[in-house]
Write a structure and sequence with these properties.
It contains 19 helices and 8 strands. The longest helix has 22 residues. Bound molecules: adenosine-5'-diphosphate and magnesium ion (MG).
Length: 451
């Protein structure tokens, strides 16, 4: 895999990881990671903040290393790093320094893939793309502010960062942050009495790009602070662009003045992609990865992800990773098989229920579901119960308490203990690893069949 970029390798790994951790965990810890570099058997994974890097390091390192090793023949060591601002962009007191504002040539705040040239245009996103391009070409002079909205995984972040890439190339001082980051910066500034620093960071830029602005909506003081930042930039013709999952009129804004500010610019929606656009995206992404996939297989993948381009990419990566693992060319049959395994991870599917997990686990240990809920402590029953706890944590969205409840009213510390124990044993025992993987497959296929 030497000639493939770190990001390509990482995407294949994410395709694999997606089926190995729970949906919830994937979203929280893995979805926003990047493959930053791969050299001398060291693979650097970027994550948006230290909270995530620490979690990945502690909890998912061994799984991630195994997955990467599985995709190559090399022994890989993984290092986790913050990419949203280099690590040294945080002062010891946690306040971001100016290095967070990218200067040309170094742009740790942008994903290098999110450019206009890699953005596929279709009916669903034509207006948003044209507006974003206009803003990038004529910042502060075409549409100000630009408000892009649409559902998850439809390319909002991609477009916002594409604007940023162009602005950087023009040597503009551009700042891209999530609204969550904006909020945290604001709260920290208040708390540490450093509102001057905050204003300096946000009000001295040529272009301010805020992702997922819905996050500040309903937070009174943050909204107000954004309002002032907005005015300061807007009156001096500096560009503001934001994304949101809802149109301005549907946001629960407390500052009605903000609504009229947003409505004073250009509001562009991104719709879910039609089938032609989905196919064009798949074709482009397969080409980027230098994999040949026949049209009928692409069509099959396009049919399986109708609502989100992220999901579409996830399926494609899964299919490519799968084809590499079994060293076969991609056919519709192979694609179907690869997708089957993760069908249960699509957001549209109903979630796995605790009782399904209990039923499947009990059956495989030749026990009844009721036995898992008793106090019986023989080795076989105890192991089955612990495996059920472990799988419930992975496959359902149940809390520790709910898992304990479903298994005969055990408390959460018992559940934690069981999950840790099984995770360790899976690491040590290929048999148990195979067994839990098989159980996961059965759970997914039963769930898909509506059982
Ligand atoms: P959002 O911010 O709307 O949730 P993202 O911008 O993160 O969605 O997009 C999800 C994934 O889909 C990204 O990897 C992005 O590059 C890709 N993507 C979205 N729209 C397009 C498109 N029109 N062309 C190519 N890739 C796209
Ligand atoms: Mg986004």
């Amino acid at each position: 895999m030497g000639c493939r970029s770190a990001q390509e390798i990482w995407e294949a790994a994410l395709g694999e990881l997606q089926v190995q951790v729970s949906k919830q965990n994937y979203r929280t810890w893995l979805e926003k990671t990047l493959g930053l570099s791969y050299q001398d058997n060291q693979f650097i994974v970027g994550a948006p903040n230290t909270f995530v890097t620490e979690y990945l390091d502690k909890k998912l390192r061994s799984l991630i290393e195994k997955t990467l090793i599985g995709l190559s023949t090399n022994n890989i060591k993984v290092v986790f790093q913050v990419y949203n601002g280099r690590q040294n962009a945080l002062r010891s007191d946690g306040v971001p320094t100016e290095t967070n504002v990218a200067t040309p040539g170094s742009h740790p705040m942008f994903n290098p893939k999110y450019t206009f040239s890699s953005f596929i245009v279709g009916n669903c996103n034509q207006l948003a793309r044209a507006a974003a391009f206009g803003v990038a070409e004529n910042p502060g002079r075409s549409y100000n502010p630009l408000f892009i909205y649409g559902g998850v995984g439809l390319g909002k972040t991609h477009l916002l960062q594409a604007i940023g890439h162009v602005a950087l190339a023009k040597h503009l001082k551009v700042l891209y942050v999530s609204a969550e980051r904006f909020t945290n910066d604001f709260i920290t500034a208040i708390y540490q009495r450093k509102t001057g620093d905050f204003q300096n960071k946000y009000r001295t830029v040529d272009m301010l790009l805020i992702d997922d602005i819905q996050f500040i909506s309903g937070k009174e003081q943050t909204e107000e602070s954004f309002f002032h930042t907005f005015n300061e930039l807007h009156t001096t013709n500096r560009q503001i662009a934001v994304t949101s999952d809802l149109p301005p009129s549907s946001l629960p804004l407390l500052q009605k003045r903000l609504l009229s500010r947003f409505e004073g610019g250009l509001i562009a929606a991104i719709q879910p992609p039609d089938v032609e656009t989905r196919l064009a995206i798949l074709r482009a992404k397969a080409e980027q990865q230098e994999v040949e996939i026949p049209l009928d297989a692409l069509e099959l993948i396009a049919q399986r992800a109708e609502q989100s381009i992220r999901q579409l990419e996830g399926l494609l990566n899964r299919v490519i990773a799968y084809a590499r693992l079994v060293k076969a060319v991609v056919t519709p049959q192979l694609a179907a098989k690869a997708i089957e395994d993760i069908a249960s991870y699509t957001p549209n599917s109903t979630s796995v229920t605790p009782s399904l997990v209990i039923e499947v686990v009990a059956h495989s240990f030749h026990l009844t579901p009721a036995a898992l809920k008793t106090r019986q402590r023989d080795k076989q029953t105890a192991l089955a119960r612990q495996v059920a706890m472990y799988l419930m944590r992975r496959e359902t969205d149940c809390s520790l308490a709910q898992v304990g409840q479903a298994l005969g009213g055990r408390d959460h510390s018992t559940v934690i203990h069981a999950c840790k124990k099984i995770a360790r044993e899976i690491d040590a025992s290929p048999d148990l690893r195979r067994k839990t993987r098989d159980l996961q497959h059965i759970i997914h296929s039963k769930q898909k069949a509506g059982n």
